[in-house]
From TrEMBL:
Ranges in a coiled coil: 38-79
Task of the protein: Non-catalytic subunit of AMP-activated protein kinase (AMPK), an energy sensor protein kinase that plays a key role in regulating cellular energy metabolism. In response to reduction of intracellular ATP levels, AMPK activates energy-producing pathways and inhibits energy-consuming processes: inhibits protein, carbohydrate and lipid biosynthesis, as well as cell growth and proliferation. AMPK acts via direct phosphorylation of metabolic enzymes, and by longer-term effects via phosphorylation of transcription regulators.
InterPro entries reported in the protein's UniProt record: AMPK1_CBM, Ig-like_fold, Ig_E-set
Organism in which the protein naturally occurs: Meloidogyne enterolobii (Root-knot nematode worm)
Keyword Coiled coil attributed: yes
The name this protein goes by in its record: AMP-activated protein kinase glycogen-binding domain-containing protein
Domain AMP-activated protein kinase glycogen-binding positions: 128-201
Length: 201
């Protein structure tokens, strides 16, 4: 073997060693990447699994809360049905729209933003333990407020209302019957009966 051939073999072997080393490096890098991908996949899976369990827990909690809410609604519904006289008291006949607001300022959001408001208590004799309601032009004659017992005045029930400036007509309801309170001014209405009225200055 001549010197030239010997140098070629030596260079070739060195090149093969370098290639073998590079192949091992590439294999190691590939194994590392493969391992990292596996770990990342497992990590993402675990994170998703934890998130899913949290969502399931929240869903069960909301279902229980919904059951409690439905039970409360059922209990309130049954209580309302068993209260004597309340059904009749809430069957309120509306006045015709053309008659509403002729002599009063209606209490609504638009007016309440423009007109000064004043708090006033409207009360009546308690009439025992029976439920008493207040209805008036400031409620558009469409709903009624329940009157509460007044502290320090055992024979009275009333409601604290916030009314705009102007004239307001109202009545009280007990056992489904409308009536006026003698302590307030009275006026005839379009149905031939009487309403109480007050003026807020």
């Amino acid at each position: 073997m001549n010197e030239k051939s010997s140098n070629f073999d030596s260079n070739f072997m060195q090149h093969m060693v370098e290639l073998s080393g590079r192949v091992l490096e590439i294999q190691n890098e590939f194994n590392i990447i493969k391992y990292n991908l596996k770990e990342e996949k497992n990590s993402n899976y675990e994170a998703l699994e934890i998130k899913l369990k949290n969502m399931e827990g929240k869903n069960k909690f909301l279902e229980k809360e919904m059951e409690k809410a439905n039970e409360t609604i059922d209990a309130l519904t049954n209580s309302i049905k068993t209260l004597g006289g309340i059904n009749d008291a809430l069957l309120i006949k509306k006045q015709p729209r053309k008659d509403r607001g002729d002599k009063s300022t209606l209490l609504n959001i638009e007016n309440s933003l423009k007109i000064p408001m004043q708090k006033i208590r409207l009360d009546t004799n308690s009439n025992g333990d029976k439920d008493i309601f207040l209805i008036g032009s400031f409620l558009n004659w469409e709903c009624a407020l329940i009157c509460d017992p007044i502290k320090g005045e055992p024979n009275k029930k009333g409601v604290l209302v916030e009314l705009p400036v102007g004239r307001h007509e109202f009545c009280f309801i007990c056992d489904g019957k409308w009536y006026t309170e003698s302590k307030y001014e009275e006026c005839l209405n379009n149905f031939g009966t009487k309403n109480n009225w007050i003026v807020i200055n």
